[in-house]
Write a structure and sequence with these properties.
heterotrimer; A mainly alpha (293); B alpha/beta (333); C alpha/beta (315); A: 293 residues; mainly alpha; MetI-like fold; two-stranded antiparallel sheet; C: 315 residues; alpha/beta; Rossmann fold; eight-stranded mixed beta sheet; 31% helix; nucleotide-binding (chain C); Oligopep_ABC_C (chain C); ABC transporter ATP-binding protein (chain C); translocase (chain C)
C-alpha cells in the first residue's frame, strides 16, 4: 500500500483506522472489560460486592485480596464506565448497522423500480420520498420511535425510515440516466425483460454511489441513535448506550463528575468522525474525478 | 420502386415517424399539436446479403429509421416488413422471435457496453435472456463469437472489463454481442465515428467479412460517404426525413443526380485536393427538422431551385436501373 | 520567419493509475503565415501540444522539459499576467465542442466586449459592436446574431463565432483543435473554406490539429504526423501524402477509405499503445511491418531527409 497522495486518500486511511479501532473494541469489548455494565455490583470469588458509585477514573478497589481497576471510573449507579462504554459500542453499532441495512435495501429497491418503471407510480413515490426527505431525520425517528416502542429492532427501524429517501433519490437518479444508455437498449433489442435489465444491467452500475453513501448513512444513524436515546426514546435502561449515558452524565457534569458523560460523548464523536472520513475517502476512490488524458 | 423478391430481407413502406413536440402556450391556444417529422414517408427495400448504406447529416432521420427497424421506436404510419412480415403486427412471442433476427450496434462503444460487467458475460447475456442452450453451450458460443470478431484468445477477453479495452476492441465486443443470437440483419448505427482512424478499417473489414461468411445483411447508417463507398452495395441519401436519392454504390458515386448528393460528395475532403464530384455548394445550413421548408426541403439552399421546388414536393423518379431520385430537375416536365 | 519554435517538449499527466507521458520530446517549427497540419489519433499528444503552447494544461500535468519560443520570447517563462495578455491577442485557440466554447448565459456581443475589455482596449461599446459585426459577416454569420444567445445559433455558427473571437484581436497564431469533428459534413467543408480565406486575408499562421488526413490535404502547407507522443514525420503536405516515408504515415493513408481509391482497406494491426508504459525504442514497432531488433532497442531520432523529417531507422 502506498502513501496517500490526495485529501481523499488521507481520509480513507484515517477513517479506516478509526473505524477499525472502534469495531475492534466493540467486538472484543467483553474480553478486555468484563466489568459490570448493567449492575451495581460485581462478583469476586462468588461473593457479591457493591461497587461504590461516582468513582473517578483509574480508581481501584481492593477487596478480598483482589484489585479491581475502574479505568474510566464508575457512574452514578456504580457501573464501570469503561465496560459500559464498550458494551454501548456494541449496541450503538448494531443499531446503526441494522438501520443502514434496512434503509439501503428498501431505498435501493424502491428507487430502482421507481426509476425504471417511471410514469405515475414514479411521480407519486417521488413525491412521498421528497416529503419524507424534507423532514429532519431526527424528527422522523422520534415520531416513529414513540410509535414503535423500545428495543434494538424498533429503534433501528425508526431510524432506518429517515434514510430511505436518500438511497431512493440517489438510485432513482442513477437509473434515470442509465435507462437511456445504449447498452440498456442493446439488452432490450436482445429481448431481455425489464426485470432482467433492471437487476443485471442497471443495478450493478449503482453500486459505486451506494457504497459511497453507506458510511455516511452509518455515521448519521449513530448520531440519530444517540439523539433518540439522549431523549430517552427507544432505549430500555439499563441497556448500555452512549447517547443515554451522555444525557445522564450531563446531569452530573456540573457537580464535578465529568467522566460519566465525557467518555460516551467522545466515543460518539470519534466513531462518527471515523465513518465520515471513511465515506469521504471511499467517495473519492469510487467516483474518481481525475481522468486520463 | 420495389417489387418484392424472394430474396428481399427488409422492406420499408411509406414509413412515417413523427414525434409530438411539447406544446407551447400558442399551441394550446390554437388547439394544435406540432410534430417533429423525423421520418416522413420513406420507402426502400434491401436485398438479402447486401450492405446498404443510409447516408445523411443530422436531422436526416437515418438513426430514427434504424431504431424503428429494430423495434425501439413505433412508427406513426407505414410499414416495416421483415421477410415479408409486418413486424409491428407481431405480438408477444412472435415479436421476440423477430427481435433475435435483427440486432444493432451503436455509435459510441464506450457507452454501448456495461462498464461493470465482464466482456464475456455481456456477450453471453442475450443467450441467457433467451434461454438458449445450456450454460456450457452458452459460454462456448460466446468464446466462438469473440474469436470470430478477432478478439483472441477469447478466454483472455472473456474476463476483462470494458475500460481495459481500446475503442476498436470495444466495438468488436459490441458486434460479438450482436452476433451471438445469429441474427439475419444487423443495423450498424455509425459504428466507426467514435473510433480511431487506424482502427476503423478493422471494423469495416469485419463487417464485410461477416456479410461474406455469415450471409449477414447489414444496414449501415453513416454520415461518412467514404466508408459508405468502401463497403456498401447500395446507398440511400437522406435529407430532413426523406430519401432524396438511392442507387447502387458505384452508380451513385459516378453519377450523382440530386444536388444534395452532389454537394455531399464534393464536400468530402479528398487527399489530392480536388473535389470528387461536380462542385455543388449549398447555401446556409440544415434547417430545424421541426419546421421543414415547404415543397422540396432543400429548396432554400439549392443552387438549382426553381419556383416548382418551393410549391410542390418532388416525386420519386426512377432513372435507369435501380436509380431513384426525388428532384424536380428530373421530372418529366 | 519562424513564428513558433518548440524544442524537445516533454509533457506528462499525473493520473490515478500512474504518470502518462503525453509528449515525449517534440520539436517543431511554425512559420509566419503558414498552415501547419498536426495529424494524429487519440493518444498521439496532438491536443496536448496545442494546450501546452497556450499554457492551458490542466493542474495535474507538468511540462517536464523543453522550450517554446513564440515571436522570439520564451513563453514557458511568462508570468500569469503576461500569459493572459498573450492568449487571445497573440495566440488564440478554438476547440472541438461548439457547445461549450461560448458562455450560454451571455449574448454573442458580450463575448466580444469582454474580450476587448480583458485585453485593455478602451473601445466604446458601439465600436466593438461594429468590429464584431464585420467580423461575423466575414465568417459567414448573419450580423443580427450578435444579439442572440449561443443556444439560438447552430453548431456551425457557434464554431464560426468562436473562430471570430479567436481572430478578433488579430493574433499571429490560431490553434484549431479538431474544430470540425463535431460538425456535419457540409458545415465542415464550409469551415475549411473559411479557414482558407482567413489564411489568405489575415496571413495568420494556423496550427490545424486533426485526425483527418483529407482535411489537412485541403488546408495545410506542411503536415506533422504524431504517434504516441512523438513526431514521426514532418514535411510539405503534397509530398508527404504522395510519398510518405514513415511506416505509420503509409499505414494511416492505406487505412482510410477514399472514394475512388482501393476498396481493400488495410487496418493497422494491433492496438494503440498504453501511454503509461509505451513500447521501448520506436513506439510504433509492435505494429510496424518493418520492425526489427534495432527498432525495439533504439529510439529513432527525427532526421532530415531533404525537405522531410522522419523518425524511422529504415526510412
Amino acid at each position: 500500500m502506498r502513501k496517500p497522495k490526495t485529501f481523499g486518500e488521507w481520509c480513507l486511511l484515517a477513517g479506516g483506522i478509526l473505524t477499525f479501532i472502534v469495531l475492534l473494541f466493540a467486538l472484543i469489548g467483553d474480553l478486555i472489560a468484563p466489568g459490570n455494565t448493567t449492575s451495581s455490583y460485581i462478583m469476586i470469588d462468588g461473593k457479591t460486592v457493591e461497587v461504590p458509585p461516582l468513582l473517578p477514573p483509574l480508581s481501584r478497589l481492593d477487596i478480598y485480596g483482589r484489585t479491581v481497576t475502574f479505568y474510566l471510573g464508575t457512574d452514578q449507579l456504580g457501573r464501570d464506565v469503561f465496560s459500559r462504554l464498550l458494551a454501548g459500542a456494541r449496541f450503538v453499532l448494531a443499531v446503526a448497522f441494522l438501520s443502514t441495512v434496512v434503509s439501503t435495501v428498501i431505498g435501493v429497491f424502491l428507487g430502482l423500480i421507481s426509476g425504471y418503471v417511471g410514469g405515475l407510480f414514479d411521480r407519486t413515490l417521488s413525491l412521498v420520498m421528497d416529503s419524507l426527505y424534507s423532514l429532519p431525520g431526527l424528527i422522523v425517528a422520534i415520531a416513529l420511535a414513540a410509535f414503535l416502542g423500545t428495543g434494538l429492532v424498533n429503534m433501528s427501524l425508526a431510524i432506518a425510515v429517515a434514510y430511505i429517501p436518500s438511497y431512493f433519490r440517489m438510485v432513482r437518479g442513477n437509473v434515470l440516466s442509465l435507462k437511456g444508455m445504449p447498452f440498456v437498449e442493446a439488452s432490450k433489442i436482445a429481448g431481455a425483460s425489464p426485470l432482467s435489465i433492471a437487476l443485471r444491467q442497471i443495478l450493478p452500475n449503482t453500486f459505486p454511489s451506494i457504497a459511497s453513501l453507506l458510511p455516511i448513512t452509518f455515521a448519521d444513524a449513530i448520531i440519530t441513535e444517540a439523539g433518540l436515546s439522549f431523549l430517552g426514546l427507544g432505549i430500555e435502561p439499563p441497556t448500555p448506550d452512549w447517547g443515554f449515558d451522555l444525557n445522564k452524565g450531563r446531569q452530573f457534569f456540573l457537580a464535578g463528575y465529568w467522566w460519566i458523560g465525557i467518555f460516551p460523548g467522545l466515543a460518539i464523536v470519534i466513531t462518527v468522525l471515523g465513518f465520515l472520513l471513511l465515506g469521504e475517502g471511499l467517495n473519492e476512490v469510487l467516483n474518481p474525478k481525475r481522468w486520463e488524458a | 420502386m420495389s417489387h418484392a423478391t424472394m430474396h428481399e430481407i427488409l422492406r420499408v413502406e411509406n414509413l412515417k415517424v413523427y414525434f409530438p413536440l411539447k406544446r407551447t402556450i400558442e399551441d394550446i391556444v390554437a388547439r394544435r399539436q406540432r410534430f417533429l417529422k423525423a421520418v416522413d414517408n420513406v420507402s426502400f427495400n434491401m436485398p438479402e446479403g447486401a450492405i446498404m448504406a443510409l447516408v445523411g447529416e443530422s436531422g436526416s432521420g437515418k438513426t430514427t429509421i434504424a431504431r424503428t427497424v429494430v423495434g425501439l421506436v413505433e412508427p406513426t404510419d407505414g410499414h416495416v416488413y421483415f421477410r415479408g412480415r409486418d413486424i409491428f403486427s407481431l405480438k408477444g412471442e412472435e415479436f421476440k422471435v423477430y427481435r433475435r433476427k435483427v440486432q444493432m450496434i451503436f455509435q459510441d462503444p464506450a457507452v454501448s457496453l456495461n462498464p461493470r460487467m465482464k466482456i464475456g458475460d455481456q456477450v453471453k447475456y442475450p443467450l441467457d435472456v433467451n434461454k438458449i442452450g445450456t450454460r456450457e453451450e452458452r459460454v462456448e458460443k460466446t468464446m466462438k463469437v469473440l474469436k470470430d470478431v478477432g478478439l483472441s484468445p477469447p478466454e483472455d477477453f472473456y474476463n476483462r472489463y470494458p475500460h481495459q479495452l481500446s475503442g476498436g476492441q470495444k466495438q468488436r465486443v459490441a458486434i460479438a454481442r450482436a452476433l451471438v443470437l445469429e441474427p439475419e440483419l444487423l443495423i450498424a448505427d455509425e459504428p466507426i465515428s467514435n473510433i480511431d482512424v487506424s482502427a476503423r478499417a478493422q471494423i469495416l473489414n469485419l463487417l464485410q467479412q461477416l456479410r461474406d461468411r455469415l450471409h449477414l445483411s447489414i444496414l449501415y447508417i453513416t454520415h461518412d460517404l467514404s466508408s459508405a463507398w468502401a463497403i456498401s452495395d447500395q446507398v440511400a441519401v437522406m435529407y430532413l426525413g426523406k430519401i432524396v436519392e438511392m442507387a447502387p454504390t458505384s452508380e451513385i458515386f459516378s453519377n450523382p443526380l440530386h444536388p444534395y448528393t452532389q454537394a455531399l460528395i464534393s464536400a468530402v475532403p479528398s487527399l489530392n485536393g480536388f473535389p470528387l464530384a461536380r462542385k455543388t455548394k449549398l447555401r446556409g445550413e440544415i434547417p430545424s427538422p421541426v419546421n421543414p421548408p415547404s415543397g422540396c426541403r432543400l429548396h432554400p439552399r439549392c443552387p438549382f431551385a426553381m419556383p416548382a421546388c418551393r410549391e410542390k414536393e418532388p416525386e420519386i423518379i426512377t432513372l435507369g436501373r435501380d436509380h431513384i431520385v426525388a428532384c424536380h430537375l428530373y421530372s418529366k416536365s | 520567419m519562424t513564428l513558433l519554435e518548440i524544442r524537445n517538449l516533454k509533457v506528462s499527466y499525473n493520473t490515478r493509475r500512474g504518470k502518462v507521458e503525453a509528449l515525449s520530446g517534440v520539436s517543431l517549427d511554425v512559420e509566419q503565415g503558414e498552415v501547419l497540419g498536426v495529424v494524429g489519433e487519440s493518444g498521439s499528444g496532438k491536443s496536448t501540444l496545442g494546450l501546452a503552447i497556450m499554457r492551458l494544461l490542466p493542474r495535474y500535468s507538468q511540462i517536464e522539459q523543453g522550450k517554446i519560443f513564440f515571436d522570439g520570447r520564451d513563453i514557458l517563462k511568462l508570468d500569469d499576467e503576461a500569459l493572459r495578455e498573450m492568449r487571445g491577442k497573440e495566440i488564440s485557440i478554438v476547440f472541438q465542442d461548439p457547445y461549450s466554447s461560448l458562455n450560454p448565459v451571455r449574448k454573442i456581443v458580450d463575448h466580444f466586449i469582454e474580450l476587448f475589455a480583458e485585453h485593455g482596449y478602451a473601445y466604446e461599446k458601439e465600436e466593438i459592436e461594429k468590429i464584431a459585426s464585420q467580423l461575423l459577416e466575414k465568417m459567414g454569420v448573419p450580423p443580427e446574431k450578435l444579439h442572440d444567445y449561443p443556444h439560438q445559433l447552430s453548431g456551425g455558427q457557434r464554431q464560426r463565432v468562436a473562430i471570430a473571437l479567436g481572430l478578433a484581436l488579430n493574433p499571429k497564431l490560431l490553434i484549431a483543435d479538431e474544430i470540425t469533428t463535431a460538425l456535419d459534413a457540409l458545415v465542415e467543408a464550409q469551415i475549411v473554406e473559411l479557414l482558407k480565406e482567413i489564411k489568405k486575408e489575415y496571413m495568420t499562421s494556423i496550427m490545424f490539429i486533426t485526425h483527418n488526413m483529407g482535411l489537412v490535404a485541403q488546408l495545410a502547407d506542411r503536415i506533422a504526423i504524431m504517434y504516441a507522443g512523438k513526431l514521426v514525420e514532418v514535411g510539405k503536405t503534397r509530398e508527404v501524402i504522395e510519398k510518405p516515408l514513415h511506416p505509420y504515415t503509409k499505414a494511416l493513408l492505406s487505412a482510410v477509405p477514399r472514394i475512388g481509391g482501393s476498396k481493400a482497406l488495410q487496418p493497422i494491426p494491433g492496438e494503440p499503445p498504453d501511454m503509461r508504459k509505451p513500447p521501448s525504442g520506436c513506439r510504433f514497432h509492435p505494429r510496424c511491418p518493418l520492425a526489427t531488433d534495432l527498432c525495439v532497442r533504439e529510439i529513432p531520432v527525427l532526421r532530415n531527409i531533404g525537405d522531410r523529417y522522419v523518425a524511422c531507422h529504415y526510412a
